[in-house]
C-alpha cells in the first residue's frame, strides 16, 4: 500500500508550536522540575523523528542558551545494510535544508550478546538493546530527557489495540507524554538513579508508638544517620503527541526534509497494528471506535487515573506513618480505624463521571493505596504487580462500612514482596518489611573493587542495584604518603573481590569459627564485641527482618579452597565483630562503601505525614 496522501488542509507544524507542546507536557507531568536544557533525540529516519529533528533544532537556534540538542541514530547491526542505513540518516541530519548549522549527531551501534538469537523475538531483543544504548548515551552526556516522535495516530492505534485485547483503566490512558525510560531497570544513571537526596522526616513526626516492634526500631543510631534516597534517571518526552501523522508529513514536505517510508507499515495483512491503521484510515469502523471517540476515551481514562491518585492521597492522609527506616527496609504504620467515604468528600475532576458503583470504586482506591504503601519496601519494580492482585487483601487492613474489623484476629500475610505483621496491641497498626528470601533465590551482586592508582586516594566500583532496593558502590582508599605502587597491593591482581548477599543466621557462627581457628586476639574482647553487635541488631532490626539485610562479604582463597569472609552490614554501617582485621589490605588501605535507597513515592510519604 502506498504512503497515505496529504490532505490539502493539513498544515506543517511550526517550531514554536512544538516547543509550546514540549513545555506543556513537561510542566504538566513534572510541575516541580524545570524543563531540561540538554535534550537527546532518537532518530530512526522516518518522517516522525525527522520532523522532530528539524523542529527541535530550531528550538536550539532560537534559544541557544536554554536548549541543546543531540540526535542519536541507532545502528542495529542486525543486517548488512544496518550500518549503511544509519550513516544515511546521519548524513540527512547534517544536510537538512533550512538550518544554519548541522544537528549534532551520534551513531550508536548495538552490541548483541553472543547467545542472542536475532531471529527469535527479534523485536523484543532489539527494543531492549536500543533503549539501553539510548539511555546510556544520554547519561554519559548529561542529557536528562530523550525526545521521541510519537504522534496522535500512534496514540489512537495503541489504545484501540489495547481495547481489542481487553485492557482497561491505565491501559486505555494512551501513550504518556512524559515517562521513565523503559527496558533499563538496574542501569545506574539511566533508570530511577543518578542523583540522591536526603530524607528528612518532619521534626514533629513521632518515629514510634507504644508497640513492641517500633520500640525495637526506634534507636538513636537510626535517627542520626542520613537517609539517602535515589532519584534521577532519563525521561522520555513526546512533544508531537497532540499532532496527527499528516501534520508531521506536511512538516517534512514543506521544509524539504528527507525521510524513509517502510511500505510494510501499510500492509493490513502483516500485523494487527497495520490492520487497525488501515481500518482507521478507511472510516469503516463504528463511530465508537473512530479517532474522535478513542481520543475521548483516552482523555476520560487519564482523568480517571488522576482522580484515583488524588483520592489515594486523601486516603493516605488518614494513614499514620509512625516509622520508616530505609536502612533496614522497614516501616510501621497505622491504617484508618474507620471507613472513609472518599467519594462523598471530593469534587470530581473535569472529564471524570460519577461512579456507577461507589463501593467498587472505593475498593479500587484502597487497592491502589495498598500498592503504593507496599512499593515503598518491595523488592520489585514499580507497578510490577497488577492492581487486581491487591484487591483481596484490602479487607485485612482497611475498614468496611458494613462490618466490624475489630472483632477478628489479624494474621501476618505477604503481598507484593512485603511481609505485613500485625501489632499485638493495636489492631490497626502493622509492621512492614521485605518478605523472607526464597530458598535458592538469594540476590547476589559481585564487585571487583579497584585499588587506587598512584596519585589517587580512592577508587570506587560502579554502582550496582541489589535486590531492587539498594544501590551500592564500594571503594578502597590508600594513604598517598606511604609511597606504595599498584604492583605491591595484591599479589593476585589490582582489585578486591567482594560480594553482597543477604545476612544469614549461619554468619554469626561463621565469624565465631574464623576467630577460633585464627588463634589471634583476645577471646574475651571478641565475645564482648559480639554481644554489643547482637544487642545493636536486636534494637535496630527486629526478629527475622535482620535476615533481609545486605551483607558485605570478601571472597578469599586459602589452601586451594574458596571461602567467604562476612565483613559488614553496610546499610547499618556496622562491621561484624573482629572481621575488619581479617580483611587483607595493605597497612594503609581502607574499605569504603556508599549506598542509597531505591527511588520511592515521595507523595505517599508526604501524604502520610512523614515529610
* Total number of distinct structural domains: 3
Proportion of residues in helical segments: 25-40%
The total count of helices amounts to 16
Number of E-state strands: 22
The name of the CATH superfamily of the largest domain reads HUPs
What is the CATH architecture annotation of the largest domain? 3-Layer(aba) Sandwich
Structural class: alpha+beta
* Basic shape: globular
How would you characterize this protein structure?
The protein has 611 residues and is of the alpha+beta class. It has three domains: 15-153 and 167-186 and 233-262, 3-Layer(aba) Sandwich (Rossmann fold), CATH 3.40.50.620; 302-435, no CATH class; 445-597, no CATH class. The chain contains 16 helices and 22 strands. The protein has helices at residues 15-29, 47-62, 82-95, 122-140, 152-164, 212-217, 220-224, 245-254, 272-282, 291-317, 358-374, 388-391, 394-397, 506-518, 523-540, 602-607, and strands at residues 38-42, 68-75, 105-109, 145-147, 178-180, 194-199, 227-232, 235-237, 320-325, 330-334, 413-415, 418-422, 429-434, 445-450, 458-460, 464-466, 470-477, 495-502, 550-558, 561-569, 574-575, 590-597. The strands form five sheets. Strands 3-2-1-4-8-5 form a six-stranded mixed β-sheet. It has a five-stranded antiparallel β-sheet with strand order 9-10-13-12-11. Strands 14-18-19-20-21 form a five-stranded antiparallel β-sheet. Strand 1, helix 2 and strand 2 form a beta-alpha-beta unit. The longest helix is centred in the middle third of the chain and has 27 residues, at 291-317. It starts with 14 loop residues before the first helix and ends with a helix. Mean pLDDT is 87; it is low at 1-8, 206-221 and 482-492.
Amino acid at each position: 500500500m502506498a504512503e497515505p496522501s496529504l490532505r490539502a488542509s493539513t498544515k506543517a507544524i511550526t517550531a514554536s508550536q512544538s516547543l509550546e507542546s514540549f513545555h506543556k507536557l513537561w510542566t504538566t507531568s513534572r510541575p516541580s522540575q524545570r524543563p531540561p536544557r540538554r535534550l537527546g533525540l532518537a532518530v530512526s529516519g522516518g518522517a516522525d523523528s525527522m520532523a522532530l529533528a528539524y523542529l527541535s533544532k530550531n528550538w536550539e537556534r532560537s534559544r541557544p542558551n536554554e536548549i541543546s540538542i543531540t540526535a542519536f541514530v541507532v545502528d542495529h547491526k542486525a543486517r548488512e545494510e544496518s550500518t549503511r542505513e544509519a550513516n544515511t540518516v546521519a548524513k540527512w541530519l547534517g544536510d537538512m535544508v533550512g538550518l544554519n548549522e548541522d544537528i549534532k549527531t551520534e551513531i550508536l551501534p548495538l552490541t548483541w550478546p553472543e547467545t542472542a538469537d536475532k531471529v527469535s523475538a527479534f523485536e523484543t531483543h532489539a527494543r531492549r538493546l536500543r533503549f539501553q544504548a539510548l539511555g546510556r548515551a544520554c547519561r554519559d552526556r548529561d542529557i536528562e530527557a530523550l525526545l521521541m516522535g510519537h504522534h496522535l495516530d500512534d496514540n489512537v492505534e495503541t489504545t484501540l489495540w489495547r481495547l481489542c485485547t481487553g485492557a482497561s483503566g491505565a491501559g486505555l490512558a494512551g501513550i504518556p507524554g512524559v515517562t521513565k525510560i523503559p527496558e533499563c531497570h538496574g542501569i545506574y544513571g539511566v533508570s530511577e538513579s543518578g542523583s540522591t537526596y536526603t530524607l528528612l522526616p518532619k521534626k514533629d513526626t513521632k518515629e514510634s508508638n507504644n508497640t513492641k516492634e517500633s520500640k525495637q526500631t526506634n534507636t538513636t543510631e537510626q535517627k542520626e544517620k542520613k537517609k539517602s534516597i535515589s532519584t534521577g534517571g532519563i525521561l522520555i518526552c513526546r512533544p508531537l503527541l497532540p499532532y496527527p501523522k499528516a501534520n508531521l508529513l506536511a512538516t517534512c514536505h514543506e521544509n524539504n526534509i528527507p525521510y524513509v517510508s517502510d511500505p510494510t507499515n501499510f500492509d493490513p495483512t502483516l500485523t494487527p497494528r497495520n490492520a487497525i491503521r488501515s481500518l482507521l484510515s478507511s472510516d469503516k469502523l463504528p463511530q465508537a471506535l473512530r479517532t474522535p471517540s478513542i481520543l475521548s476515551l483516552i482523555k476520560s481514562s487519564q482523568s480517571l487515573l488522576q482522580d484515583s491518585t488524588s483520592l489515594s492521597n486523601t486516603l493516605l492522609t488518614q494513614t499514620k506513618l509512625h516509622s520508616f527506616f530505609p536502612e533496614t527496609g522497614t516501616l510501621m504504620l497505622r491504617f484508618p480505624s474507620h471507613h472513609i467515604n472518599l467519594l462523598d468528600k471530593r469534587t470530581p475532576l473535569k472529564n471524570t463521571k460519577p461512579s456507577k458503583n461507589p463501593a467498587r470504586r472505593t475498593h479500587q482506591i484502597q487497592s491502589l493505596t495498598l500498592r503504593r504503601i507496599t512499593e515503598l519496601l518491595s523488592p520489585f519494580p514499580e507497578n510490577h504487580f497488577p492492581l487486581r492482585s491487591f484487591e483481596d487483601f484490602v479487607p485485612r487492613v482497611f475498614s468496611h462500612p458494613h462490618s466490624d474489623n475489630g472483632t477478628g484476629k489479624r494474621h501476618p500475610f505477604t503481598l507484593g514482596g512485603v511481609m505485613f505483621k500485625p501489632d499485638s496491641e493495636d489492631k490497626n497498626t502493622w509492621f512492614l518489611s521485605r518478605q523472607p528470601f526464597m530458598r535458592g533465590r538469594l540476590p547476589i551482586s559481585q564487585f571487583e573493587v579497584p585499588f587506587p592508582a598512584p596519585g589517587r586516594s580512592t577508587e570506587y566500583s560502579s554502582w550496582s542495584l541489589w535486590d531492587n532496593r539498594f544501590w551500592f558502590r564500594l571503594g578502597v582508599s590508600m594513604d598517598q604518603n606511604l609511597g606504595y605502587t599498584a604492583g605491591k597491593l595484591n599479589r593476585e591482581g589490582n582489585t578486591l573481590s567482594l560480594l553482597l548477599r543477604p545476612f544469614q543466621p549461619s554468619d554469626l557462627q561463621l565469624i565465631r569459627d574464623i576467630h577460633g581457628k585464627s588463634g589471634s586476639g583476645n577471646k574475651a574482647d571478641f565475645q564482648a564485641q559480639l554481644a554489643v553487635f547482637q544487642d545493636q541488631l536486636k534494637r535496630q532490626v527486629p526478629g527475622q527482618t535482620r535476615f533481609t539485610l545486605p551483607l558485605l562479604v570478601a571472597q578469599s582463597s586459602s589452601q586451594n579452597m574458596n571461602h567467604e569472609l562476612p565483613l559488614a552490614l553496610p546499610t547499618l554501617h556496622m562491621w561484624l565483630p573482629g572481621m575488619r582485621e581479617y580483611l587483607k589490605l595493605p597497612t594503609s588501605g581502607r574499605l569504603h562503601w556508599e549506598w542509597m535507597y531505591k527511588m520511592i513515592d515521595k507523595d505517599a510519604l508526604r501524604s502520610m505525614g512523614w515529610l
